[in-house]
Write a structure and sequence with these properties.
One of its GO terms (molecular function) is FMN binding. The chain is an alpha/beta fold and 628 residues long.
Amino acid sequence: MTVQHDNACCCTAARRLTVDDLAVMREEYAARLHAPNMRHIFICGGTGCHATGSIAVKNRLVEEVAARGLTDTVRIVETGCNGFCALGPLLLVHPENIFYQKLAADDIPELVEEQLVHGRQVERLLYRDPQTKKPIPHFGDIPFFARQQPWTLRNKGVINPESVEDYIGRDGYRGTARALLEMTPESIVQEMLTSGLRGRGGAGFPTGMKWQFAQRSAGDVKYVLCNADEGDPGAFMDRSILEADPHAVLEGMIIAARAINAYQGYIYCRSEYPLAVRRVQIAIEQARALGLLGHNILGSGFDFDVEIYQGAGAFVCGEETALMRSIEGKRGMPRPRPPFPAHKGLWEKPTILNNVETLANVAQIMLNGGAWYASVGTEKSKGTKVFALSGDVNNIGLVEVPMGTPLRSIVYDIGGGIPKKRKLKAVQLGGPSGGCIPEAYLDVIIDYEEIAKVGAIMGSGGAIVMDDRTCMVDMARFFLDFIQDESCGKCTPCREGTRRQLELLEKICAGKGEDGDIELLEELSSMITESALCGLGQTASNPVLSALRYFRDEFDAHIKQKKCPAKRCAALLDFTVNADKCKKCGKCFQTCPVQAIAWQKKEVAVINRDICVRCMSCFEACPFDAID
C-alpha cells in the first residue's frame, strides 16, 4: 500500500462492470479501510476549506508522511466538505476517529510526529467543548456531528469524491443495480411514492408523483435534469453534495431515467461552482469508463448518459422552465404552466427536474426500500433534510437532521447557539423566497406544512440565524434588493413591483418613511404574489411579509420615531457614545478609520460628528451597545 493522495482512478482503461464486480470492489475497499497497521487521513477538500488553506495543509501532510517513511502505512484522502465549516481546515484520523480542527500547514509536523508516529493526540488541535473547555477528541462525540442523521451526506468527509472505487466501496451503484436489474419502471416509481420523498429544491412536490407523470407521458424521447443552480444567499448544500459525493447524484439520475425511460440527462450547474463542476465531470468520465453510464449499464440493456450544462449564475434559472430554456440555448426566462414539464419540458419533450439533494437520496431508497426512508420524519414530510446553517451562530456548516426536528435544536444543540451570548432574534428559512421565524416560534418542527404555518418555507435549506442586532427592515431590504436584481424582467409584477417595494424599504431605512408606506408595501406584496409569472416573483414578498408579521413595531419605529431599534440603519443613528453603557474600553477608538473618536484610558469615548463618516465601524466594535 502506498500513500494515496492523488486523484488517480483505476478505471482509466474502459471496463464494463457487472454486479459481481461491484461486490468485489466493496470487499477490496473494506479490506483496504480496515487493513492492520494502516491509517487513513481524511482531510476536507470542499470549497470552504480550500479557501481557509486545506490545500497547503494537505501538501505539507504529504511531504511529512513521505519524509518520515510512512508511505506504506498512511493513506491521505482529500474528501469533499466535512460539514463543520466553521472549524476548517479539518482532518480526521481513521481508525481512531480523532478529529482535528483549524489546522495550518505549520501544525502538520507535530501532528505527524505525535499522532502518526507515537499514537498520541495533539491536544491543542482538538475540538473543545465550548462550556467546559475540555477537549473532545473523537469525531462521534462532538455534538455538532452526534446529533445529526447523515443519510444524504453519508459519504461526506470519508471518501475521495474523485474516486469511484471509494464510492462503490460505500455501497455505491448497488441501488442502481437493483433498479436496473430487479425492478420495473413502475416498481421504481412505486418505491419512490412509498418513500414519501418530496422535492428538496423548495416546493416540496412528491418526487414519485412527478416521476409517475413523466412515466405516463407519451413520447420516445424524454429527459432527466438535475438542478444544481443553487443561488439562494446563504445556501451551499447542493454545491457541497456535488463536491463531496457526485456519484450519488449520478445514481439518482440513472434511476430516474430508468423510471421514465429517458436516455439523456443534463446537470445544470452554475459556473460559479468550479470545483463541483470539475468533480462531477470526473465522476461522469469514471462512470462511463466502467459502463455505469452510456450503453447497456451493468448489462441491463438500458442506455443513459449525462452532460453538464454550466449556467451563468442567474437566480431565475433555478426555476424549472427557465432552466430548460437556458439549456435550449435561449435566454433563461420562465414560461406559464401548464403544460408542466412532465408533459412538455426540455425541447417540448417529457422531462423531470429534481435538485441535487433530492437525487442524492434516490439510490439509498432503491437500496433500502421506500418504507425504510419513510420510517423517519413526520406524517407528510419523510426522511431527512440538509440545511446550510450560517449567520449569527457558532457552528456554521452543513446540518442533516430527521424531518420533525425542532428548529431550536438545530440552532442551539447542533449550531451551538448565538456568539457573544447575544439573543436570537429570528431565523431566515428558505432564502429570499422564505421568511423569518422569530424566537417565539423556534420550537416549530422541520416539516413542510408546519414551517409554512409560521410564515416561512422549507426552501432549499438555507438557514440564516440573526441575533438581536439585526434590523428586520434592513433584512427585508437586503432580500428585496437581491430579488429585484435577479428578476428576469419578463412579467411586470415582478419587474416593476419588486422595484417599487425596494424603493419603499430603502426610503424607510434612510429615515424618510411616511405614513402609508407599510400599507403600500402590503398592497404591492399581495399584487405581486397573485400575479407574478413564476415562483421567483410569487414568493418575492415573503421576507417583507414575514418581517411585517412579526416585527411591525420596527417598521413603525423607523417611520414614526425615525429610530432604528437594532441600530443598523446608519441614517437613523446619532453616532454618540452612551456614557451609561460605555465601559471605557477604547475599542471604538481603535477601530475608527478616520480618527473621529477621542478616548483616553478610563475615560468615556467621544465621537466628533463633524469628522465621522458613519461607517458603522465603532458600532461593530463596541461589545456593550454603547453607540447610539
